[in-house]
Design goal:
The complex is a heterodimer. Chain A has helices spanning 27-40, 57-60, 70-74, 110-122, 138-146, 158-179, 183-193, 204-214, 216-228, 241-257, 272-279, 284-287, 292-306, and strands spanning 14-19, 45-49, 86-87, 93-96, 127-131, 149-154, 232-238, 263-269. By secondary structure, chain A is of the alpha/beta class. In chain A, a hairpin with a 5-residue loop joins strand 3 (86-87) and strand 4 (93-96). In chain A, helix 5 (138-146) packs across helix 6 (158-179). Chain A is globular, with a radius of gyration of 20 Å. Chain B folds into two domains: 5-98 and 111-126, Helix Hairpins; 149-228, lambda repressor-like DNA-binding domains (434 Repressor (Amino-terminal Domain), Orthogonal Bundle). Chain B contains nine helices and no strands. The radius of gyration of chain B is 20 Å and the shape is elongated. The chains are: A alpha/beta, B mainly alpha. At the A-B interface, helix 6, helix 8, helix 9 and helix 10 of A face helix 2 of B.
């Protein structure tokens, strides 16, 4: 169990974004249950369903389709973001749902997006969890980069792993573009995002080398950005010890290929009870608090609060 | 700052500290080799088959260099030389490296914290090999009451070594290692040879050779004298 000494881990508000290229890998379920565990530690938690156009965070929490949603805020049907927050049956846990939004909600314009992010920063909460959608669209990447901590969920399957690397790469280049003002270099970054570009830039390292040749200083700034970018990783639906190993392998590959420090937060074991809890529309942490997946998520919350990561010892 | 894969030195490649012991290097090699297997799904879409084949080859190279003491000493020297060359333009201060003392633990595998230092280096920037550390006996773990054959076997398994690995490292025949572990005293060689085997085996396991030798020889003598009676 998580001990109470953790509770004074941090008083400052933190925004966590949970994403990871592929759909159906358990982002919403993990977000929902992390939220519940945080709320049980007497943290004020606000969950935001930022999966615009495919929202179902409310369902993983067992809440019926709410009256007010994020699109009411985006379309200015309400004045402040406070008006779209709904209380859940769990103390300290509230939700901004994205359900039943207008069909165009998946593509908020720039003004809507910045307004949302600005308002989020004013809210009174210890933790704000952003549940991101699938894919690597600019909206998703921007939410991911805006947050204090970006968490990636991956399954031990080639499809999910492929999308995770794609997500990291896209987020990376988008972050690069935000810090660079020189148009020539911006064009270079755009060109580098095309994997088959004519300059032969395949890794971020090669891109930085190229940029350095154009402008030494900008190259150094980008290098700093690489060091600051520290996404976290959760491996979901783990069935064997080898699946756990995949997290460490991805960490090593990211270090060598991208030069970034991927933090391996933990894994969630595969169990039918997750599926059963979804079917019964009750959150896993409430329905099966002592199941193995619940324990795993608890451990992840523990690691998140203590700013720790999984060590290789779990394998031996 | 960020290094291209081909520019990583062998320690960075295997993700061990330059002060890593033989066992740590072996363990890290086993792990890293599995990570960069050509079919490894964790690398899916990141590396091409040619790249991972090249990587595999470099990992083998790194292991073969670091696991043999002579090769490693030569490699460390060349790394230091290269570092000095590069460091000439930079401030001449060489950071003093503190070799880590590894405390072998006689505990259950699940709580084996011994391999903590083999974890991927969080600060990959300071990968300069240390000056060769002074020969120093590793502290013996008091939890081991007596080094009996089975105890040695458990210790070896905890470290993740097979008999074969130990035979490769120590150059002691695997037969004799097995006889030591099963305490087949009548099949073991004469006392002086046995002492040598035990000492080298103890070193490979990272425990105090003196204690392991004296404990085991005591048992050997007892068994032999009983037989003579």
């Amino acid at each position: 169990m998580i001990d109470t000494t953790l509770q004074d881990a941090l008083r400052k508000k933190e925004i966590w974004a949970i994403g990871g290229g592929k759909g159906g890998i358990g982002k919403s379920i993990i977000t929902g249950n992390i939220g519940i565990y945080l709320a049980r530690l007497k943290k004020k938690v606000l969950m935001v369903d930022a999966d615009l156009g495919g929202a179902n965070l409310h369902t993983t929490l067992g809440i019926d389709v709410p009256n007010v949603t994020l699109s009411d805020f985006l379309n200015r049907r309400v004045d402040t973001i406070q008006d779209v927050i709904i209380k859940t049956s769990i103390p300290n846990l509230s939700l901004i749902s994205g359900a039943q939004d207008f069909l165009d909600a998946a593509n908020p314009n720039f003004a809507q997006k910045t307004r949302l992010l600005r308002h989020l920063e004013t809210l009174d909460a210890d933790y704000i969890l952003l549940d991101l959608g699938a894919g690597t669209s600019f909206n998703i990447l921007d939410f991911f980069l805006f947050s204090d901590y970006g968490i990636l969920v991956v399954l031990p399957e080639p499809t999910a792993i492929e999308n995770t690397y794609r997500f990291i790469k896209s987020a990376f280049y988008r972050r690069f573009k935000r810090v660079v003002t020189n148009q020539g270099i911006r064009d270079l970054i755009d060109a580098a995002m095309d994997q088959k570009n004519s300059m032969g830039i395949r890794t971020p390292y090669e891109l930085i080398e190229h940029v350095k040749q154009m402008e030494q200083e900008v190259g150094e700034i980008l290098e700093l950005e690489v060091l600051k970018f520290k996404p976290k990783l959760i491996v979901n639906q783990v069935r064997t010890k080898n699946d756990i190993q995949i997290g460490f392998a991805m960490k090593s590959a990211c270090q060598k290929y991208f030069g970034i420090d991927l933090e391996y937060l933990g894994y969630v074991e595969y169990d039918d009870c997750v599926w059963q809890s979804i079917r019964s529309k009750r959150p896993l942490a409430v329905e099966y608090p002592y199941s193995r997946p619940s324990r795993c998520i608890e451990r992840i919350v523990h690691n998140l609060l203590k700013k720790e990561q999984l060590s290789l010892n779990v394998l031996y | 700052m960020i290094k291209k894969i081909i520019n990583l030195n062998y320690y960075e490649l295997l993700e061990v500290s330059p002060a890593a012991t033989k066992q740590e290097i072996h363990k890290a090699y086993e792990r890293i080799r599995r990570v960069y297997e050509p079919n490894s799904i964790a690398l899916y879409s990141l590396f091409t088959p040619e790249e991972s084949a090249a990587m595999q080859q470099r990992i083998e190279e790194a292991y073969r260099t670091l696991v043999y003491e002579d090769n490693r000493k030569r490699y460390d020297a060349s790394l230091r030389a290269r570092n000095r060359l590069e460091g000439e333009s930079a401030p001449p201060l060489q950071p003093k490296f503190q070799p880590q003392v590894v405390q072998p633990a006689f505990s259950l595998p699940s709580e084996n914290r011994y391999l903590g230092s083999a974890a991927p280096a969080s600060q990959p920037l300071k990968q300069v090999p240390p000056e060769p550390p002074q020969e120093k006996a590793t502290p013996v773990d008091n939890l081991i009451a007596e080094f009996t054959g089975p105890a040695i076997k458990i210790l070896r398994e905890q470290r993740g070594f097979t008999i074969r690995n130990i035979a490769d490292i120590t150059k002691v025949g695997s037969r004799y290692l097995e006889y030591i572990e099963t305490e087949s005293f009548n099949k073991l060689p004469q006392r002086p040879y046995l002492r040598g085997f035990l000492a080298i085996y103890a070193k490979a396991l990272g425990c105090n050779p003196e204690r392991m030798v004296s404990d085991f020889i005591k048992r050997y003598d007892a068994a032999v004298s009983q037989k003579q009676k």
